[in-house]
# Entry
Amino acid sequence: MRVDIVTIFPEFFSVLDLSLLGKARQSGLIEVTAHDLRDATHDRHRTVDDTPYGGGAGMVMKPEPWGEAIDGIVGDGASDALLVVPSPAGEPFTQQIARELAAEQHLVFACGRYEGIDQRVVDHYATRMRVRLISLGDYVLNGGEVAVMAMIEAAGRLVPGVVGNPESLVEESHEDGLLEYPSYTKPASWRGLDVPPVLLSGNHGAIAAWRHEQQIERTRRVRPELLGE
Ligand code: 6GU
# Structure
């Protein structure tokens, strides 16, 4: 999978060198490049924003640097890449969307700052490639960078080969539409708290049933809407 990120903070993505995704990058499973939007400006101040037409607070990102930066990645014609624009006005990011992103050959993320990117950037690229506006959730971030980091981590670990043991992917929160069950390791007693005895019983059927009950109970308590309740 190839991933390109356009941002005014390319250094922000250096943390992708660490941990699981860093290994995936070293082994060539995922190739990530962060591009500086300001490299696609041509004035002395490397200007990427301007005041909004129609007035209002804040600044809007100018379309020309975005056009030059994205054309530099996908070319100037039709592209098979998926352009992802993180935006609080987008569709909510879910495990299902993470699976869809993980199946792509080439993702391009356009990280806006300020009050957003001139709408014509999305409208233009929508004529040449698939474009998705995706939100991390119902709260406001200062820019798309943190959202893109979350999307790359969630999708990247679903790329075959990135997570060593694929079985560890199936018993997680949201994979079966429920929250995950609580986990315990040694010691069996810690600060007066005992591991639930069923987990020490060796009865695999009883353990599976207990874990499923815990999933339902947790989900009903904190996320009843996931159960349709
Ligand atoms: Cl994707 N971007 C920004 N700037 N704020 C957000 C968001 C994205 N998702 C939730 N809040």
Notes: Residues 86-88, 135-137, 139-141, 143-144, 147 surround 6-chloroguanine (CB under 6 Å). The first strand starts at residue 2 and ends at 7. The two ends are 38 Å apart (CA to CA). The chain has a mean pLDDT of 95.
